[in-house]
């Protein structure tokens, strides 16, 4: 009997676990559950004899791959796979996958939710501003970016995008204006919604110079990764631009300094919660389980990222 470990430091909603189990039961696979673990040693122990692994943002390091002697496949139930050591996976003949698009709506709704919140002074009761008529720039027009664009249009925002990897016509077909550089995007929009992945090229790539191009009333919305921000330069911008505001799904490392000096100009979720809805958990978790069964039974490698 094949064993599938679901290792989630931040657990799926119970309904998602039930549905993952149903998929695995049908295939006659055993589900092993490791939730809310607090030590890496527990993860290393649990992974020892499993054939497949489902994780969220849990770090699948070289050590984890080394400990998982029977592992054939790891699926990151979500979009960003910067938590997987792909080299280690490949070296050990482990297929790595993600489940693109499955949790995007939850993330997009949070992006707009945080925008309304900051525009209304974090619901402090003070007079705020509206999103209607404002310009939003979508930095990377992937699954989440596309949904943010759609919802932002519902708010009556003017939507712009920059994505060098996407076909211009496809973006324009969504009623979104395509700009030709990052600089143009940031100079044009009061709101920037970040959807770039965290990799060697993008880490710390969003800093003072690019953010300072934003017009008055600048608000940066980050539901991507905190690592893409240059935090030293972020603090400099906060200090120099009184109009600048930052909302982010997971606090930056410099959150205490921001909280101390720039009250009312930020909002940070206490834990990464963009994808933390029952619906997103079910979609991503069930997709992960199906991808595992489909790979083991039929050799299907759709969504392989290594
Ligand atoms: C993703 O990359 O899919 C999101 O950041 C969600 O991450 P999570 O599964 O840890 O909530």
How would you explain this protein's 3D organization?
With 306 residues, the chain is of the alpha/beta class. It folds into two domains: 3-102 and 276-298, NAD(P)-binding Rossmann-like Domain (Rossmann fold, 3-Layer(aba) Sandwich), CATH 3.40.50; 104-268, NAD(P)-binding Rossmann-like Domain (Rossmann fold), CATH 3.40.50. It has twelve helices and twelve strands. The strands form two sheets. It has a seven-stranded parallel β-sheet with strand order 8-7-6-9-10-11-12, sandwiched between helices. Strands 2-1-3-4-5 form a five-stranded parallel β-sheet, sandwiched between helices. α1 (14-26) runs parallel beside α12 (278-298) and α5 packs across α6. The longest helix is centred in the last third of the chain and has 21 residues, at 278-298. The radius of gyration is 20 Å and the shape is elongated. The two termini are 26 Å apart. The relative contact order is 0.16. The site of 3-phosphoglyceric acid has 11 residues, from loops.
